[in-house]
Design a protein that fits this description.
single chain; alpha/beta; seven-stranded antiparallel beta sheet; 18 helices; 28 strands
């Protein structure tokens, strides 16, 4: 057995290595600086404390540029810090949901995920590193704050520079490091995840739906992996397990620059899928982001399913999925900016429903406490307690399982849902790469305005519509399980008719600031249900832009993305 000795490298500290809601995201060129990546990895490992020595960690990512180099750095640094074993996806590939699956299945200390999610890739794109804890979910604030504190004072990191593991071949390699056994298992990237999906869903019914019968024609799907990590998973599930034709899946080869695509599954960046379904014979379309945790669902003729509606429909039909028949339905949750459609399902079915800050880590405690089965974010993230991450392919299969059982189209399911609950019209305007200082000034201006004693009760009028302010605040949250608190999570203006305006600065960009404006309005008149949400919401959008002085602060006369 080959033996190695670790060494200590003196380093310099870097400003700004503070993990956001989903880890540290920066431009590739930032991570390529000497010591930069090594520092952050060392900080992650040190933050785990005394549990690190002799532990097992999972490592993988979305296949973006710089990923393989980062995997090798993690192997060398983990070996030097006393980790006993690494489980690494072949070629460094593991979707974010798959990392969570493997952490939970093999009961590891956690995992290091190499992804910038839906951000563009390539040499001039973005890279990211995040740490998932032993429950499989993103590290909570207590851990990410500890990581950041370590980066601010780090003077050295440990490494085994000579250690080189072939991560392209499925194999197990054991070596001696400082006279201790160190093992690296390179595993099939998709096997554990696909096995879990087959336990959750009725693949027989889904397969029958996709192939048709004498009573019902084949249900035609188009699945777009956007050249991200889900490509191999899509091939295994849809082509090999469900036996659809290769023509039903597109962009299923992971590319380090996502083939030049922006791997964000929405109406702007997945327009090729939208046009193909709109103009083709397809009954259903789905797209996933770079690391596989987000999804977009569309029906025939590109009937768009807003993520807030998707969450509510899944909640209303969760009892049709085998996994939940076994486990029962424990509760629902949504992020604060997400539309409140799921709240109405929860109220009718008398099931607990939570509202948490943006960031999947806030769902984890509720799941671990047995109080949450289904959750989602308006940013195209949906998931359940099968793992501790949002899960794009899971959401797609959930929809197909429900369609197979109900025998209805996507549009018919939505119309039926709205006729039962009414419709929460919802939209989000994203203003990307804005000047950070100006964006912060705008948020301060809005907060000062809504904190005025006479703001509650204010009547805002536009186009013969009157909105009366019921409540306004900067959203804060106290975790009902561990009583931890999160403050300044977004500026809310809530109206008496259940309409809402919300302003947030996003933490998922790698540079500048992204301003997100969320608009929601509830309608119970069936004649409105088929109307364009942008028409229904236009008065509130215009009010929010006037109230915030957004154009004055940012110079932007239109958003980068509308969803």
């Amino acid at each position: 057995m080959t033996s190695y000795a670790s060494s200590i490298v003196n380093t310099v500290t870097f400003e700004g290595q503070k993990p956001g809601t989903s880890g540290l995201r920066k431009a590739v060129k930032v991570f390529q600086q000497e010591h930069y990546t090594e520092n952050f990895i060392q900080a992650i490992l040190e933050a785990t404390g005394s549990s690190l020595v002799g532990s097992t960690l999972v490592v993988g990512g979305d296949g973006r540029y710089y990923g393989k180099e980062a995997v090798q750095k993690i192997i060398k640094i983990a070996a030097a810090n006393g980790v006993a074993k690494l489980i690494v996806g072949q070629n460094g590939i593991l979707s974010t949901p798959s990392v969570s699956t493997i952490i939970r299945k093999y009961k590891t200390l956690g995992g290091i995920v190499l992804t910038a999610s839906h951000n563009p890739g390539g040499p001039n794109g973005d890279f990211g590193i995040k740490f998932n804890c032993e429950n499989g979910g993103p590290a909570p604030d207590t851990v990410t704050n500890k990581i950041y504190d370590i980066t601010m004072n780090l003077k050295q990191y440990k490494i085994v520079s000579e250690l080189d593991i072939d991560i392209d071949k499925i194999q197990s390699t054991s070596v001696q490091v400082d006279k201790k056994l160190f093992t690296v298992d390179i595993i099939d990237s998709v096997a554990d995840y696909v096995s879990l999906m087959k336990e959750i869903f009725d693949f027989t019914s889904i397969k029958k739906l996709l192939h048709g019968s004498a009573e019902r024609p084949a249900f035609q799907v188009l699945i777009n992996a956007m050249n991200g990590v889900t490509g191999p998973y899509v091939k295994q599930i849809f082509v090999k397990e469900l036996e659809v034709s290769d023509s039903s899946i597109v962009n299923c080869v992971p590319k380090d620059d996502f083939g030049g695509l922006h791997p964000d599954p929405n109406l702007t960046y997945a327009v090729d899928l939208v046009n193909a379904v709109k103009n083709g014979p397809y009954d259903f379309g789905a797209a996933f982001d770079g690391d596989g945790d987000r999804n977009m669902i569309i029906g025939k003729k590109a009937f768009f399913v807003n993520p807030s509606d998707s969450l509510a429909v899944l909640a209303d039909n969760l009892k049709l999925i085998p996994y939940f028949i076994k486990t029962g339905i424990k509760g629902y949750a949504r992020s604060m900016p997400t539309g409140a459609a799921v709240d109405r399902v929860a109220k009718k079915t008398n099931i607990e429903c939570f509202q948490v800050p943006t960031g999947w880590k806030y769902f984890g405690n509720l799941m671990d406490a047995g109080r949450l089965s289904l959750c989602g974010e308006e940013s195209f993230g949906t998931g359940s307690d099968h793992i501790r991450e949002k899960d794009g392919i899971w959401a797609c299969l959930a929809w197909l399982n429900i369609i197979a059982t109900l025998g209805k189209s996507v549009e018919e399911i939505l119309l039926s849902h709205w006729n039962t609950y009414g419709r929460n019209f919802f939209t989000r305007y994203d203003y990307e790469n804005c000047d950070a200082e100006k964006s912060n000034q705008m948020m301060e201006y809005i907060e000062t305005l809504i904190n005025k004693p006479d703001f509650v009760g204010t009547k805002l009028l536009l186009e013969n519509k009157t909105y009366i302010v019921k409540e306004a605040d900067n959203y804060s949250y106290e975790d009902p399980i561990d009583k931890s608190k999160a403050s300044k999570q977004g500026l809310r203006i809530l109206f008496e008719d259940d309409s809402r305006i919300i302003f947030r600065l996003s933490g998922t960009g790698s540079s500048g600031a992204t301003i997100r404006l969320y608009i929601e309005s509830y309608e119970s008149d069936p004649s409105t249900y088929n109307q364009d949400p942008q028409n229904i919401l236009k008065p509130l959008v215009d009010i929010s832009l006037q109230l915030s002085k957004l154009q004055e602060y940012t110079g932007r006369d239109k958003p980068t993305v509308i969803t």
